[in-house]
Design a protein that fits this description.
It is built from 8 helices and no strands. By secondary structure, it is mainly α. It has one domain: Up-down Bundle (Ferritin). The longest helix is centred in the middle third of the chain and has 24 residues. The chain is elongated, with a radius of gyration of 19 Å. The model has no long low-confidence stretch (mean pLDDT about 90).
Length: about 180
């Protein structure tokens, strides 16, 4: 009996990784391409800058470098998660949470910039923030390095969610026909 557990542990420790860095790179390029196709960079920046912003809102130039760092770190953690044994704690749930987060990421530009909806942008941002919180908490029981890989994303979304809420309340939403009350 003991021999079987040792053999299984040895096999899991030394099995070749199924997913490699180029899989993560290909996935990252694909979701960023999907996101990028739904926006118009120059117009998007002007759209963001035309809004009444919270005093703590980041400048528009900060988004690109922050998202490069967030995506690289998250992809590294996702690759680590994918290469875990099927029976790893919370692996399946974490994969679903991360999949949902990537769907929100890849469609955000569409709802915010193409559809001109700060309300939906807030919903997408808040949903991704909640998915990230759940992912971090479950990752702590699975692999702390995966939780760490999500830390920059969690920090950014913790700032972005109230910024998005402020924008949703204080600015017009063309898609939903919302007009803020002016004082």
């Amino acid at each position: 009996m003991k021999q079987g557990r040792i053999s299984k542990a040895f096999d899991e420790a030394f099995r070749p990784e199924r997913y490699r860095w180029y899989h993560a790179l290909g996935f990252g390029l694909t979701v960023n391409l999907a996101s990028g196709l739904s926006g118009r960079r120059t117009e998007d920046r002007r759209f963001y800058e035309s809004f009444e912003q919270a005093s703590f809102a980041p400048p528009s130039w900060a988004f690109a470098p922050v998202w490069v760092a967030n995506n690289a770190s998250t992809l590294w953690g996702n690759l680590r998660l994918l290469n875990q044994p099927e029976a790893a704690p919370n692996r399946r749930v974490l994969l679903w949470l991360q999949g949902a987060s990537w769907v929100l990421f890849s469609t955000f530009s569409y709802v915010y910039f193409r559809k001109r909806s700060p309300i939906l942008a807030f919903v997408w941002t808040a949903a991704m923030w909640l998915l990230t919180i759940a992912s971090v908490l479950l990752s702590l029981k699975n692999d702390r390095k995966i939780a760490l890989s999500l830390s920059s994303l969690l920090a950014w979304l913790t700032l972005a969610t109230p910024v998005a809420a402020y924008q949703a309340v204080r600015n017009p939403d063309e898609l939903l026909g919302y007009q803020p009350q002016r004082r």
